[in-house]
Amino acid sequence: MDKLDLLRCEIDSVDKELVKLFERRMEIVTEIGKFKEETNMPILNKSREEEVLKKNASYLKDEELVGPMKEFFKKVMEISRDVQRERMLNRVIDKKSKIKVGFQGQSGSFSEAALNEYFTDVESMNVETFEDVFVSLHSNHIDYGVLPIENSSTGGISEVYDLLKKYNGYIIGEVCLKVKHNLLGVEGSSIELLEEIYSHPQALEQSKEFLKKYPHIKLIPYKNTAISAKYIMEQKDVKKGAVASVNAAEIYNLKVLKENIHHNHNNYTRFVIIGKNPEICENANKVSVLVNTNHEAGALFNVLRYFADNDISMLKIESRPIIGRSWEYFFYIDFQGNIHDEHVKKAIKLIEDNANYFKLMGNYISGS
Questions:
Q1: Residue 271 is among the residues annotated as catalytic for this protein
Q2: Residues 20 and 73 in one domain
Q3: Given 103, 110, 130, 271, which residue is catalytic?
Q4: What is the pLDDT of residues 202-235, one digit of tens each?
Q5: What is the pLDDT of residues 292-330, one digit of tens each?
Q6: Is the domain of 149 the same as that of 209?
Q7: Do 104 and 174 reside in the same domain of the chain?
Q8: How far apart are the C-alpha atoms of 353 and 342, rounded to whole Å?
Q9: Same-domain pairing of 361 and 295
Q10: What angle is formed at CA 312 by the lines to CA 296 and CA 284, rounded to 5 degrees?
Protein backbone atom coordinates (compact mmCIF):
# COMPACT_ATOMS: atom_id res chain seq x y z
CA MET A 1 0.00 0.00 0.00
CA ASP A 2 1.54 3.30 -1.10
CA LYS A 3 1.39 6.62 0.73
CA LEU A 4 -1.71 7.84 -1.14
CA ASP A 5 -3.64 4.72 -0.21
CA LEU A 6 -2.64 5.15 3.43
CA LEU A 7 -3.79 8.76 3.41
CA ARG A 8 -7.08 7.75 1.80
CA CYS A 9 -7.58 5.11 4.46
CA GLU A 10 -7.05 7.79 7.07
CA ILE A 11 -9.60 10.02 5.30
CA ASP A 12 -12.07 7.12 5.24
CA SER A 13 -11.61 6.63 8.96
CA VAL A 14 -12.21 10.34 9.64
CA ASP A 15 -15.26 10.32 7.34
CA LYS A 16 -16.68 7.33 9.21
CA GLU A 17 -16.47 9.30 12.45
CA LEU A 18 -17.94 12.35 10.70
CA VAL A 19 -20.93 10.29 9.52
CA LYS A 20 -21.59 9.13 13.08
CA LEU A 21 -21.32 12.70 14.37
CA PHE A 22 -23.47 14.01 11.51
CA GLU A 23 -26.18 11.48 12.30
CA ARG A 24 -26.05 12.40 15.99
CA ARG A 25 -26.22 16.09 15.10
CA MET A 26 -29.33 15.52 12.98
CA GLU A 27 -30.97 13.63 15.87
CA ILE A 28 -30.37 16.63 18.13
CA VAL A 29 -31.48 19.02 15.37
CA THR A 30 -34.77 17.09 15.12
CA GLU A 31 -35.30 17.38 18.89
CA ILE A 32 -34.62 21.12 18.68
CA GLY A 33 -37.12 21.29 15.80
CA LYS A 34 -39.77 19.64 17.99
CA PHE A 35 -39.11 22.17 20.74
CA LYS A 36 -39.37 25.05 18.26
CA GLU A 37 -42.72 23.67 17.07
CA GLU A 38 -44.07 23.35 20.58
CA THR A 39 -42.98 26.86 21.53
CA ASN A 40 -43.78 28.43 18.11
CA MET A 41 -40.20 29.57 17.56
CA PRO A 42 -38.90 30.35 14.05
CA ILE A 43 -36.50 27.83 12.52
CA LEU A 44 -33.88 30.43 11.63
CA ASN A 45 -31.92 31.94 14.54
CA LYS A 46 -29.29 34.11 12.88
CA SER A 47 -27.58 35.21 16.09
CA ARG A 48 -27.24 31.58 17.25
CA GLU A 49 -25.70 30.58 13.91
CA GLU A 50 -23.19 33.44 14.11
CA GLU A 51 -22.34 32.36 17.66
CA VAL A 52 -21.72 28.77 16.47
CA LEU A 53 -19.37 29.96 13.70
CA LYS A 54 -17.42 32.20 16.06
CA LYS A 55 -17.11 29.53 18.76
CA ASN A 56 -16.04 26.80 16.33
CA ALA A 57 -13.45 29.10 14.75
CA SER A 58 -11.84 29.48 18.18
CA TYR A 59 -11.20 25.70 18.30
CA LEU A 60 -9.01 25.74 15.19
CA LYS A 61 -5.25 25.48 15.49
CA ASP A 62 -4.66 26.55 11.88
CA GLU A 63 -6.09 30.06 11.39
CA GLU A 64 -5.87 29.68 7.61
CA LEU A 65 -8.73 27.18 7.85
CA VAL A 66 -11.18 29.67 9.44
CA GLY A 67 -12.81 30.56 6.09
CA PRO A 68 -13.30 26.97 4.86
CA MET A 69 -14.45 25.88 8.33
CA LYS A 70 -17.11 28.60 8.37
CA GLU A 71 -18.35 27.56 4.93
CA PHE A 72 -18.50 23.95 6.11
CA PHE A 73 -20.60 24.80 9.17
CA LYS A 74 -22.82 27.20 7.21
CA LYS A 75 -23.73 24.27 4.98
CA VAL A 76 -24.26 21.98 7.99
CA MET A 77 -26.60 24.54 9.58
CA GLU A 78 -28.43 25.03 6.29
CA ILE A 79 -29.02 21.25 6.14
CA SER A 80 -30.14 21.35 9.78
CA ARG A 81 -32.75 24.01 8.96
CA ASP A 82 -33.95 21.95 6.01
CA VAL A 83 -34.40 18.90 8.26
CA GLN A 84 -36.38 20.93 10.80
CA ARG A 85 -38.51 22.55 8.09
CA GLU A 86 -39.34 19.25 6.37
CA ARG A 87 -40.38 17.73 9.67
CA MET A 88 -42.54 20.76 10.49
CA LEU A 89 -44.23 20.80 7.08
CA ASN A 90 -44.85 17.05 6.95
CA ARG A 91 -46.10 16.62 10.50
CA VAL A 92 -49.42 14.82 10.84
CA ILE A 93 -52.15 17.00 12.34
CA ASP A 94 -54.45 15.16 14.71
CA LYS A 95 -57.91 16.40 13.82
CA LYS A 96 -60.43 16.60 16.62
CA SER A 97 -63.93 15.31 16.10
CA LYS A 98 -65.26 18.73 17.14
CA ILE A 99 -63.30 21.87 16.26
CA LYS A 100 -63.66 25.12 18.19
CA VAL A 101 -63.00 28.40 16.38
CA GLY A 102 -62.67 31.86 17.90
CA PHE A 103 -63.51 35.27 16.45
CA GLN A 104 -63.50 38.84 17.72
CA GLY A 105 -66.83 40.53 18.24
CA GLN A 106 -70.44 39.48 18.68
CA SER A 107 -72.92 37.45 16.72
CA GLY A 108 -73.61 39.33 13.51
CA SER A 109 -70.02 40.50 12.99
CA PHE A 110 -68.18 40.20 9.69
CA SER A 111 -65.64 37.96 11.44
CA GLU A 112 -68.42 35.53 12.31
CA ALA A 113 -69.59 35.63 8.67
CA ALA A 114 -66.03 34.79 7.53
CA LEU A 115 -65.88 31.94 10.06
CA ASN A 116 -69.12 30.47 8.73
CA GLU A 117 -67.92 30.77 5.14
CA TYR A 118 -64.65 28.92 5.83
CA PHE A 119 -65.77 26.29 8.36
CA THR A 120 -68.72 23.93 8.53
CA ASP A 121 -69.98 22.10 11.60
CA VAL A 122 -67.70 23.74 14.16
CA GLU A 123 -68.27 25.26 17.56
CA SER A 124 -67.63 29.02 17.60
CA MET A 125 -66.51 31.23 20.46
CA ASN A 126 -66.57 35.02 20.42
CA VAL A 127 -64.02 37.13 22.32
CA GLU A 128 -63.66 40.84 22.95
CA THR A 129 -60.39 41.77 21.23
CA PHE A 130 -58.08 40.61 18.44
CA GLU A 131 -55.46 39.74 21.06
CA ASP A 132 -58.01 37.61 22.93
CA VAL A 133 -58.20 35.38 19.83
CA PHE A 134 -54.45 34.70 20.04
CA VAL A 135 -54.55 34.21 23.81
CA SER A 136 -57.43 31.73 23.45
CA LEU A 137 -55.53 29.85 20.74
CA HIS A 138 -52.33 29.54 22.75
CA SER A 139 -54.17 28.51 25.90
CA ASN A 140 -55.92 25.75 23.88
CA HIS A 141 -59.41 27.18 24.44
CA ILE A 142 -59.85 27.21 20.66
CA ASP A 143 -58.30 25.25 17.79
CA TYR A 144 -58.31 28.08 15.24
CA GLY A 145 -58.98 31.80 15.07
CA VAL A 146 -60.48 34.05 12.40
CA LEU A 147 -59.11 37.59 12.08
CA PRO A 148 -59.42 40.43 9.54
CA ILE A 149 -56.00 41.36 8.17
CA GLU A 150 -56.59 43.57 5.13
CA ASN A 151 -59.33 45.65 3.54
CA SER A 152 -59.46 46.67 -0.10
CA SER A 153 -60.33 50.27 0.88
CA THR A 154 -58.19 50.94 3.95
CA GLY A 155 -55.30 48.48 3.60
CA GLY A 156 -53.63 46.27 6.19
CA ILE A 157 -54.82 46.00 9.79
CA SER A 158 -51.64 46.77 11.71
CA GLU A 159 -52.75 45.34 15.04
CA VAL A 160 -53.31 41.88 13.56
CA TYR A 161 -49.92 41.87 11.80
CA ASP A 162 -48.23 42.83 15.08
CA LEU A 163 -50.08 40.12 17.00
CA LEU A 164 -49.05 37.47 14.46
CA LYS A 165 -45.43 38.29 15.29
CA LYS A 166 -46.00 38.61 19.04
CA TYR A 167 -47.74 35.24 19.37
CA ASN A 168 -45.87 33.40 16.56
CA GLY A 169 -49.11 32.38 14.87
CA TYR A 170 -49.39 30.51 11.58
CA ILE A 171 -51.80 31.22 8.73
CA ILE A 172 -53.56 28.06 7.58
CA GLY A 173 -56.23 29.61 5.34
CA GLU A 174 -58.01 32.78 4.26
CA VAL A 175 -61.43 34.10 3.28
CA CYS A 176 -62.17 37.20 1.21
CA LEU A 177 -65.55 38.58 2.23
CA LYS A 178 -67.51 41.33 0.49
CA VAL A 179 -68.29 43.89 3.17
CA LYS A 180 -71.38 46.09 3.04
CA HIS A 181 -71.75 48.74 5.72
CA ASN A 182 -75.13 50.08 6.74
CA LEU A 183 -76.26 52.82 9.10
CA LEU A 184 -78.46 51.33 11.81
CA GLY A 185 -80.68 52.83 14.50
CA VAL A 186 -83.38 51.83 16.95
CA GLU A 187 -87.05 51.93 16.00
CA GLY A 188 -88.20 55.54 15.71
CA SER A 189 -84.72 56.84 14.88
CA SER A 190 -83.66 58.65 11.70
CA ILE A 191 -80.47 60.12 10.29
CA GLU A 192 -81.71 63.59 11.21
CA LEU A 193 -82.07 62.58 14.88
CA LEU A 194 -78.62 61.03 15.23
CA GLU A 195 -75.96 62.71 17.38
CA GLU A 196 -73.55 59.77 17.78
CA ILE A 197 -72.52 56.90 15.52
CA TYR A 198 -70.60 53.90 16.89
CA SER A 199 -68.54 51.37 14.96
CA HIS A 200 -65.15 49.78 14.51
CA PRO A 201 -62.58 52.35 13.26
CA GLN A 202 -62.18 50.42 9.99
CA ALA A 203 -65.93 50.57 9.30
CA LEU A 204 -66.02 54.31 10.04
CA GLU A 205 -63.04 54.86 7.74
CA GLN A 206 -64.62 52.81 4.95
CA SER A 207 -67.82 54.89 5.26
CA LYS A 208 -66.21 58.31 5.70
CA GLU A 209 -67.44 59.78 2.39
CA PHE A 210 -71.05 59.26 3.49
CA LEU A 211 -70.50 60.20 7.12
CA LYS A 212 -68.78 63.51 6.38
CA LYS A 213 -72.09 64.76 4.98
CA TYR A 214 -73.20 64.95 8.61
CA PRO A 215 -70.42 66.87 10.40
CA HIS A 216 -72.62 67.48 13.46
CA ILE A 217 -72.72 63.73 14.23
CA LYS A 218 -69.98 62.52 16.56
CA LEU A 219 -68.19 59.40 15.30
CA ILE A 220 -67.22 57.10 18.17
CA PRO A 221 -64.74 54.25 17.48
CA TYR A 222 -65.95 51.07 19.16
CA LYS A 223 -64.76 47.49 19.56
CA ASN A 224 -66.59 45.89 16.65
CA THR A 225 -69.45 46.52 14.22
CA ALA A 226 -71.72 43.91 15.81
CA ILE A 227 -70.84 45.05 19.35
CA SER A 228 -71.76 48.59 18.25
CA ALA A 229 -75.13 47.35 16.98
CA LYS A 230 -75.76 45.49 20.23
CA TYR A 231 -74.80 48.58 22.24
CA ILE A 232 -77.30 50.92 20.57
CA MET A 233 -79.99 48.22 20.87
CA GLU A 234 -79.33 48.16 24.62
CA GLN A 235 -79.29 51.97 24.88
CA LYS A 236 -82.67 52.37 23.12
CA ASP A 237 -81.67 55.93 22.21
CA VAL A 238 -82.89 57.39 18.90
CA LYS A 239 -79.87 59.74 18.94
CA LYS A 240 -77.39 56.85 18.70
CA GLY A 241 -76.59 54.92 15.54
CA ALA A 242 -74.17 52.19 14.46
CA VAL A 243 -72.39 51.15 11.28
CA ALA A 244 -72.81 47.41 10.88
CA SER A 245 -74.18 44.65 8.64
CA VAL A 246 -77.79 43.92 7.70
CA ASN A 247 -77.34 40.64 9.56
CA ALA A 248 -76.52 42.58 12.75
CA ALA A 249 -79.64 44.70 12.20
CA GLU A 250 -81.76 41.54 12.06
CA ILE A 251 -80.11 39.96 15.12
CA TYR A 252 -80.45 43.07 17.30
CA ASN A 253 -83.83 44.18 15.93
CA LEU A 254 -82.54 47.46 14.53
CA LYS A 255 -83.77 49.64 11.70
CA VAL A 256 -81.61 50.18 8.59
CA LEU A 257 -81.46 53.97 8.25
CA LYS A 258 -79.26 53.87 5.13
CA GLU A 259 -77.94 50.88 3.17
CA ASN A 260 -74.48 50.50 1.64
CA ILE A 261 -72.81 53.62 3.03
CA HIS A 262 -69.25 52.43 2.22
CA HIS A 263 -67.62 54.55 -0.49
CA ASN A 264 -65.91 51.64 -2.26
CA HIS A 265 -68.61 49.35 -3.60
CA ASN A 266 -65.99 46.75 -4.38
CA ASN A 267 -65.22 46.63 -0.65
CA TYR A 268 -63.64 43.34 0.47
CA THR A 269 -61.96 42.30 3.71
CA ARG A 270 -59.44 39.49 3.78
CA PHE A 271 -59.68 37.30 6.86
CA VAL A 272 -56.94 34.87 7.86
CA ILE A 273 -57.47 31.57 9.65
CA ILE A 274 -54.75 31.18 12.28
CA GLY A 275 -53.48 28.07 14.03
CA LYS A 276 -50.71 27.12 16.46
CA ASN A 277 -48.95 25.00 13.83
CA PRO A 278 -48.59 25.14 10.05
CA GLU A 279 -51.04 23.04 8.03
CA ILE A 280 -50.31 22.74 4.33
CA CYS A 281 -52.62 21.03 1.86
CA GLU A 282 -51.49 19.59 -1.46
CA ASN A 283 -53.09 22.33 -3.59
CA ALA A 284 -51.96 25.31 -1.49
CA ASN A 285 -51.14 28.23 -3.80
CA LYS A 286 -50.28 31.18 -1.56
CA VAL A 287 -47.30 31.62 0.77
CA SER A 288 -46.82 34.11 3.61
CA VAL A 289 -43.42 34.80 5.16
CA LEU A 290 -42.05 37.22 7.76
CA VAL A 291 -38.61 38.73 7.11
CA ASN A 292 -36.18 41.21 8.64
CA THR A 293 -33.10 42.41 6.75
CA ASN A 294 -30.01 44.45 7.59
CA HIS A 295 -30.69 48.16 8.07
CA GLU A 296 -28.66 49.23 5.04
CA ALA A 297 -29.11 50.32 1.44
CA GLY A 298 -30.17 47.53 -0.90
CA ALA A 299 -30.76 44.91 1.80
CA LEU A 300 -34.50 44.56 1.15
CA PHE A 301 -33.96 44.59 -2.62
CA ASN A 302 -31.45 41.76 -2.27
CA VAL A 303 -34.19 39.68 -0.67
CA LEU A 304 -37.07 40.67 -2.98
CA ARG A 305 -35.10 40.02 -6.16
CA TYR A 306 -35.24 36.29 -5.49
CA PHE A 307 -38.94 36.37 -6.36
CA ALA A 308 -38.25 37.73 -9.84
CA ASP A 309 -35.18 35.51 -10.25
CA ASN A 310 -37.37 32.44 -9.65
CA ASP A 311 -40.40 33.67 -11.63
CA ILE A 312 -42.58 34.06 -8.52
CA SER A 313 -45.38 36.62 -8.35
CA MET A 314 -45.28 38.69 -5.16
CA LEU A 315 -48.80 39.63 -4.03
CA LYS A 316 -48.27 41.95 -1.08
CA ILE A 317 -45.65 43.41 1.24
CA GLU A 318 -46.54 45.02 4.57
CA SER A 319 -43.94 46.68 6.80
CA ARG A 320 -44.22 46.92 10.58
CA PRO A 321 -41.74 48.77 12.84
CA ILE A 322 -39.52 46.83 15.23
CA ILE A 323 -40.16 48.16 18.72
CA GLY A 324 -36.98 49.54 20.29
CA ARG A 325 -35.07 49.75 16.98
CA SER A 326 -35.85 53.03 15.23
CA TRP A 327 -36.44 52.84 11.47
CA GLU A 328 -36.05 49.07 11.34
CA TYR A 329 -38.90 46.89 10.12
CA PHE A 330 -40.33 43.44 9.82
CA PHE A 331 -41.76 42.70 6.38
CA TYR A 332 -44.78 40.47 5.85
CA ILE A 333 -44.66 39.15 2.29
CA ASP A 334 -47.35 37.20 0.44
CA PHE A 335 -46.56 35.47 -2.85
CA GLN A 336 -47.98 32.84 -5.17
CA GLY A 337 -46.75 29.28 -4.97
CA ASN A 338 -46.54 25.97 -3.17
CA ILE A 339 -43.55 25.31 -0.92
CA HIS A 340 -43.12 21.85 -2.45
CA ASP A 341 -42.41 23.42 -5.87
CA GLU A 342 -38.68 23.48 -6.57
CA HIS A 343 -38.52 27.14 -7.63
CA VAL A 344 -40.39 28.17 -4.46
CA LYS A 345 -38.07 26.04 -2.31
CA LYS A 346 -35.08 27.69 -3.97
CA ALA A 347 -36.43 31.22 -3.43
CA ILE A 348 -37.27 30.54 0.23
CA LYS A 349 -33.79 29.13 0.86
CA LEU A 350 -32.12 32.18 -0.72
CA ILE A 351 -34.33 34.61 1.19
CA GLU A 352 -33.70 32.81 4.48
CA ASP A 353 -29.94 32.77 3.87
CA ASN A 354 -29.91 36.53 3.25
CA ALA A 355 -32.28 37.63 6.03
CA ASN A 356 -31.62 38.45 9.67
CA TYR A 357 -34.94 36.87 10.60
CA PHE A 358 -37.14 34.54 8.58
CA LYS A 359 -40.33 32.69 9.40
CA LEU A 360 -42.63 30.76 7.10
CA MET A 361 -46.06 32.00 8.22
CA GLY A 362 -48.07 29.60 6.10
CA ASN A 363 -48.85 28.03 2.73
CA TYR A 364 -52.57 27.85 2.05
CA ILE A 365 -55.30 28.17 -0.57
CA SER A 366 -55.91 31.74 -1.68
CA GLY A 367 -59.33 33.08 -0.73
CA SER A 368 -59.58 35.39 -3.74
A1: yes
A2: yes
A3: 271
A4: 999 999 999 999 999 999 999 899 999 999 999 9
A5: 988 888 888 989 999 999 999 999 999 999 988 888 899
A6: no
A7: yes
A8: 16
A9: yes
A10: 120
